[in-house]
Amino acid sequence: MTAGSSDDGGDKVVTFPTTAEERRAMRKLQQDRERQRLVNVFVDGDKALFRDSNGDVFADLIVDGHRETWPIRSMEFRGAYIAYLQRQLDRLVSEGSILAIGVKHAMTKNAINNVLNEYEIKANSSLATRRDVFTRIAPHDDDIFIDLCNPNWEAIRITAGGWSIVESPPVRFRRTRGMLPLPYPERGGKIEALRPFFNLKTEADFTVIVGYVLAALRPFAPYPILNPIGPPGAAKTRLLRLIRRLTDPNGAETTPLPPSGEELFLSARNSHFLAYENVSHLSKKMSDHLCRMATGGSYRGRRRYTNTDENLHRGGRPISFEGIHNVVTEPDMLDRLVAIEVERVERYQDDKVLDRNFDRARPRILGALLDLLVAGLREETTVRLTLPAPRMVGFVTWAVACGLPGFEQAYASNRQDAINTLLEYDAAAKAVRQLVEDRKRWHGTAAKLLADLGEVAGVKNPRMLSDRLRLLTPMLATVGIHVIPGKRKNAERPLTIERR
User: Fold this and answer.
1) With bands split at pLDDT 50, 70 and 90, how would you rate the model's confidence at 65?
2) Fewest Cβ atoms closer than 10 Å to its Cβ: which of 36, 96, 182, 449?
């Protein structure tokens, strides 16, 4: 049977199914078309599917009027798709539509996996969009965006002209398990309101800590490394946790130091701010990993269940760790360190009371930090430092641009205190200082120096001593001891050590 037929071909001819098999085929075709329509509607166009530089695939979803970004293989994306299908199923069932059967079939595990595979293929295609995805803090042109991590997916936009709350920011953020929301910042606050919550010895220490927090709210490496040191009961861990609540709140506020570099860099994919508690030992290898993390280095690791594919873990994260003893023995880390000595708290207060008071003050403290960031973006290019530039010159320039009075002097004093601590405990440094205590000048080779010093702890041959001195040279110069290498003659290179 046909309908609407004509001999001149002007009308479309529709052939109705006449057998049960044809009717089943038509119903299946209608259901397949409905399933494909649902797939196409759930993700709004191919531009909503993209991958990042590491090859991870993401999708932008419109949920309750706002945009969310999820990895396609995440439980959140899968759950959102199942919830969407359930809404469509409920609608079709209420309408009595036969298409409800097709949607019901689309909700099976195999059908959902096939759809996720389809999304993944589209996101990995050569025509797919490439985007960077950030955790908590992101740059965009000259602006800074901070993910509030709230249900509306709002962000704080910071420019040289001010700060505001925005919906659907131009950057993409990833949400990971444990991330908690920042409060809505309030205007009119003063950064001095943060001082009573920190157990610090001096106002200079507070100035340096605020500079560190401002650096942590910046989306660019290199970052300084914060290391509070003090006896048990000095509120060192609490200091790190409060800084975390102002920068990157998380259900796991502080954790033990990861056992490997790979796990350290993996944690950076899931958090912007890294805080480690009760660090009693720091190997040279882990010290190098932390320095690479703070300066924006990367880590390559084999992708699981493959032979040649790699995962690229990018660093560039603010790091903090606390402990009772000084564990920093490598000059390379010392150059990046903000070491704060704290004393035991004299009068303890209930943590619940402290948390409640801090939560009340946090919106205005956050607003005050944002005001300082605005000043930093406005003044950074015009800052002129008055003291010799340290290795972390970017950190100092940023803190000064943000308007922290006396920061240069406070940081220089903090850095010298850290150097003095290292020189006090480093065996090679102690031996060299003892050598020139009664003389102004020593000259000879590394082998002669080792003979004069005796076997220094951990240094058993001239080459090791020479390598150690090369690292200690800038530190020794700050206390008036200068190590001057001479020109190599034959197989030896003379050294001169002077006290000025």
Assistant:
1) confident
2) 96
The three-state secondary structure class of 71 is strand
Structure tokens given for 447: 């082998």
For the chain, list the domains and their CATH numbers: 22-129 (no CATH), 194-420 (3.40.50.300), 426-499 (3.30.56)
- The contacts of residue 249 (CB under 8 Å, 6+ apart) are 149, 179, 180, 181, 182
CB 331 within 8 A of CB 468: no
Return the HEC string of 160-226: CCEEEEECCCCCEECCCCCECCCCCCCCCCCHHHHHHHCCCCCHHHHHHHHHHHHHHCCCCCCCCEE
- Which one has a higher pLDDT value, 163 or 463? 163
- CA max distance for the chain: 117
* Tokens 């993409």 -> residue: 172
Amino acid at 325: H
Say if CB 265 and CB 290 are below 8 A apart. Answer: no
Condensed to tens digits (0 to 9), the pLDDT of residues 471-481 reads 899 889 989 99
**Residue 286: is it exposed, middle or buried by C-beta count within 10 angstroms (0-12/13-18/19+)?**
buried
Q: Answer whether 343's CB lies under 8 Å from 230's CB.
A: yes
- Among residues 365, 345, 119, which one has the least CA distance to residue 238? 345
Cα separation, 249 vs 247, in Å, equals: 6
Contact (Cβ atoms closer than 8 angstroms) between residue 162 and residue 377: no
Q: Residue 369: count other Cβ atoms within 10 Å of its Cβ.
A: 24
CA dist 376 → 168, 303, 465 (Å): 25, 40, 43
Q: Which residue has the higher pLDDT, 89 or 307?
A: 89
| Residue 5 or residue 58, greater confidence | 58
Instruction: Quote the CA–CA distance of 393 and 442 in Å, as a whole number.
Output: 33
- Residue 413: Cβ within 10 Å count: 15
CA 408, distance to chain mean position in Å, is: 26
Q: What is the pLDDT of residues 438-495, one digit of tens each?
A: 788 999 998 888 888 887 766 888 888 888 888 899 889 989 999 998 887 777 788 9
pLDDT tens digit string along 170-199? Answer: 999 999 999 999 999 999 999 999 999 999
Amino acid at 78: R
Q: Which residue has the tokens 């790190």?
A: 240
Residues forming beta bridges with residue 172, ordered by sequence position: 133
Omega within 30 of 0 (cis) for the link into 139: no
pLDDT in tens, 259-269: 998 899 888 88
